[in-house]
Amino acid sequence: MMIIGVMNAPSLPHGALRLADWGLIRAQGADAASFLQGQLTQDVVALPDDRARLAGFCSAKGRLMASFVVWRADRETFFLACSADLLAPTLKRLSMFVMRAKCKLSDVSAEISLHGLVGADALSALGVGSAGPWTVSATADGQLVRLPDAEGLPRCLLAAPAASALPAALLALPPLAPADWAWLEVRSGVVRIVAATTEHFVPQMVNFELVGGVNFQKGCYPGQEVVARSQYRGTLKRRLMAFEGAAPLAPGQDVFHSNDPGQPAGQVALSAQRPDGSSSALIEVKLAALDSGSLHIGAADGPVLVRATLPYAIPTDAG
């Protein structure tokens, strides 16, 4: 299958926006770290104060119910940023396991706003310089979490009190269109689980272990045996790949191979529409479907998909 770069954009986006499709959970208490340690795919206990991590929350069958960007607010407080459309059910399910643990879970999305920042100017506006991905910096207005770059551009989450005015330097940045942020999120190669894809993927199916979302040395968590078995039983048969298409795409849509119209060959995990109407997507797909023929959205005779590049390498024994 031919691999191309991304479709050319007139210029790379930069600026800031309020992230309406992200929400924030706070875990607070003396047992917050140990509680999260027993629920997530990430080593939360060992999380340094100045680092964030990608983490998954799995079902007993090892399927991702939600994904988080996790970081510490202080010694006994953690923030978990996730897709807004999954926050309420995820918070409810996590709360079921708190029991006697000294940990209070709450939705603080209305109290603490999440903003997306793109470009070196955004970093300079907050005076944090060129900190690398997954670093956490304190600012006068909150906490800044560096995300993996996309298309060579730095990206950040700013968690700031909703009642406070943003700094003038940040307000002076160009407004960033939600579609541009979504496109860069896709181009980062890091999936965010949304309502349409909850419980669809074992972490390795969406490259979670390749982008630091799974720690295989930590203790047990729901679905841990399935995740470990997927890692060590042999070559993976499904992976997350980047694609471009001329038609709109949406998370949860099925993808079909030209030679096998009877069953899906994969599923859209995350997508974004470009101003020209084309789409970029991260698609979980059978590796065997990449060997020949073509992939199509919705049906074997649907709009064709063209494979694009990821910003990280896939192991050679997995496509």
Task: Please explain how this structure is put together.
This protein is of the alpha+beta class and 319 residues long. The protein has a domain of 173 residues: 2-Layer Sandwich (Gyrase A, domain 2). The chain contains six helices and 17 strands. The strands form three sheets. Strands 12-15-14-13-16-17 form a six-stranded antiparallel beta barrel. A five-stranded antiparallel sheet has the order 2-8-11-10-9. It is globular and about 55 Å long. The chain starts with a strand and ends in an 11-residue tail after the last strand.
Features of this protein?
6-stranded antiparallel barrel, single chain, 6 helices, about 325 residues, alpha+beta, Gyrase A, domain 2, 5-stranded antiparallel beta sheet, globular
What is the share of helical residues?
10-25%
Number of strands: 17
Beta content = 25-35%
The main sheet orders its strands as 12-15-14-13-16-17
Structural class by sheet pairing and helices: alpha+beta
Using the 3D structure, state the CATH architecture of the domain at 15-187.
2-Layer Sandwich
Instruction: Work out the helix count.
Output: 6
Order of helices and strands: EEEHEEEHEEHEEEHHHEEEEEE
Q: Round the Cα radius of gyration to an integer and report it.
A: 19 Å
Main beta sheet: strand number and arrangement? 6 strands, antiparallel, barrel
Which topology of the domain at 15-187 does CATH recognise? Gyrase A, domain 2
Low-confidence stretches: none
Average pLDDT, all residues: 92
Query: So, the CATH homologous superfamily of the domain at 15-187?
Result: Probable tRNA modification gtpase trme, domain 1
Distance between the termini: 11 Å
What is the CATH domain class of the domain at 15-187? Alpha Beta
